[in-house]
């Protein structure tokens, strides 16, 4: 059984290729423009907030930078926005989310430099933002964003790592170019094993999702939009270091916990939590960057997203749900 989301999932490599080609120069120009800014805000909601977390954490682990991540309404209601020489990058697949649009309007009123990354060139946010990067995916119908997630994260990494010129940024910029091929390969390699895993866990009601560094953002997306929206499972994301401040009291034999590991230094906390959960006999599902790719650990949200997409796609399927459907909220406003 193939759902509409299947084709969107398979279109990820091509969407990445098209976005790199058509938006490359514009992204490079924006990197140079925001380089001089004293502060950069990243603002989005849901899946589009998760990309902000991942990009911020990837950058903050390597560079000294004033960068804040906020949801749309956090930004809107925040009294102390630093608007002298600051830039805001808004992420919205639809370009219509009311929260993010309200934040964009406030930023424009305050005179901040505004950039929107969206998949909808005709959207309200695209027309009201000073600069727009259009992810070249074509329309995405599934509520569980795949190609729009991948390309949005690509755009954020390109713009933010593009502000620097050193060995690390050169490496990441080079690896971003390799992503379409890498994702193509992952889509092929990981479907069957993740379908089997989904079948095994299809009866579970709740999944805790843990990651550190750039994988916290992915844990957030996995819990909030993939498992809750896509597979209709209860879920909760957390920073690996937060394990011992709550979840440690709740984990017990048979409770499923998903660990996302990048191999970066912050993952010593993920490993520590994993060892503890092993001792308790929890159902540990570990997605390790080193099992899937040789790319830098900073690229793990792109890489691990693919097996997770298959896992969630089939988890929904084995529960008789369409992974791309939604019960209460629409994807794109027409
Ligand atoms: N249910 C959707 C989420 O799936 C989406 O991630 C979020 C942001 O949407 P957008 O990226 O279009 O702003 O909006 C809603 O909450």
Automatic annotation (TrEMBL):
Residues 30-169 form the SIS domain. GO terms for molecular function: carbohydrate derivative binding; glutamine-fructose-6-phosphate transaminase (isomerizing) activity. Gene3D superfamilies: Glucose-6-phosphate isomerase like protein, domain 1. SUPFAM superfamilies: SIS domain (SSF53697). PROSITE patterns: SIS. InterPro entries: GlmS/AgaS_SIS, GlmS/FrlB_SIS, SIS_dom, SIS_dom_sf. Keywords: Aminotransferase, Repeat, Transferase. GO terms for biological process: fructose 6-phosphate metabolic process; protein N-linked glycosylation; UDP-N-acetylglucosamine metabolic process. This is Glucosamine--fructose-6-phosphate aminotransferase. It comes from Methanothermobacter thermautotrophicus (strain ATCC 29096 / DSM 1053 / JCM 10044 / NBRC 100330 / Delta H).
């Amino acid at each position: 059984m193939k759902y509409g989301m299947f084709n969107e999932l398979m279109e990820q490599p091509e969407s990445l290729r098209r976005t790199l080609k058509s938006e490359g120069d514009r992204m490079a120009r924006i990197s140079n423009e925001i380089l001089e800014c004293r502060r950069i805000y990243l603002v989005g909601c849901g899946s589009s907030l998760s990309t902000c977390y991942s990009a911020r954490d990837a950058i903050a682990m390597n560079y000294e930078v004033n960068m804040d991540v906020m949801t749309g309404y956090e930004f809107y209601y925040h009294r102390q926005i630093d608007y002298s020489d600051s830039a805001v990058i808004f992420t919205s697949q639809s370009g219509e989310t009311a929260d993010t649009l309200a934040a964009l309007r406030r930023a424009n009123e305050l005179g901040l430099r505004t950039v929107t990354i969206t998949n909808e060139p005709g959207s309200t946010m695209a027309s009201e933002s000073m600069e727009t990067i259009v992810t070249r995916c074509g329309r995405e119908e599934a509520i569980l964003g795949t190609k729009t997630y991948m390309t949005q994260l690509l755009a954020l990494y390109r713009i933010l790592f593009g502000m620097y010129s050193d060995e690390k940024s050169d490496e990441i910029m080079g690896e971003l170019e390799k992503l379409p091929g890498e994702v193509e390969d992952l889509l092929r390699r990981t479907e069957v094993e993740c379908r089997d895993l989904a079948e095994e866990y299809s009866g579970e009601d709740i999944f805790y999702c843990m990651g550190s560094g750039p994988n916290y953002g992915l844990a957030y997306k996995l819990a909030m939009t993939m498992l809750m929206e896509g597979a209709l499972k209860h879920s909760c994301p957390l920073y690996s270091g937060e394990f011992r401040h709550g979840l440690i009291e709740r984990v017990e034999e048979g409770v499923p916990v998903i660990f996302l590991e990048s191999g970066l230094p912050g993952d010593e906390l993920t490993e520590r939590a994993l060892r503890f959960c092993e001792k308790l006999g929890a159902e540990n599902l570990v997605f390790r960057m080193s099992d899937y790719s040789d790319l830098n650990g900073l690229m793990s949200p792109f890489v691990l997203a693919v097996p997770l997409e298959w896992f969630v796609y089939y988890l929904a399927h084995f529960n008789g749900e369409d992974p791309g459907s939604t019960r209460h909220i629409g994807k794109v406003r027409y």
